[in-house]
Structures are given as structure tokens and as C-alpha cells.
Give the backbone structure.
Amino acid sequence: MLAALNHARILIVHGMFWDYGGVGRGSALYWSGLTLVDPVVAVLLLVRPRIGVPAAAVLIATNVVHNLSVTARFTPEGEVLGRVVTSPVLLSQIGFLLFVALTYRLALSKRTRTFR
């Protein structure tokens, strides 16, 4: 949900059609779309976990792949790994992806649904 607030803040500050500093239309559309997709997935995690858990896994996986590819595109050759390991945002996304991967089956198990 915090990610959605960050994307909303960016849209408020820069407008709907900002190109995120020249990353390209596809990347800008992807990041702007997260303003709506992130909260929808968060709600699905609570109200429809069988849909929300896979949706969250796909969302964070595409986010990591996308952000790493953008980083690679705009980082000088040979400096990508250094950029990744010094980026708190990328490291937190990769960490969350690992958390989701490691807890995926548990999150889908019936035993964990005590809130229903």
C-alpha cells in the first residue's frame, strides 16, 4: 500500500503523463499503473487470498524484473551490480520477492486464514 501512495505522490507532483525522467513510455505506464494495481492486490490479499497471494507474487516479480532492467539500461556497463547493492529500494524489493517466494505456500494454506 505504501508503494501505491508513492506512485500517487509522483502522479500528483509530475502529472499523469510524466516520463519518469526519460525511461520510456512502457516503463512510465507500468509505474503509473501501480498506483491502482498495488492497492487492488493488497485488498485481494485480505478478502480473496487464493487470488491475492498469486497476484502479489506476480506483481513483485514483475516489479523486480522491470526495475532491474531499467537500472541495467541506465547504468554504465560494469556498474550495475554496484548500483543494485547500494540501492535501498532495489534491495528492499528483492528482499520482499524472496520473502514472498519463501512464504508462498504457507500464505495459501488454510491454516493461516484465521481472519475469515
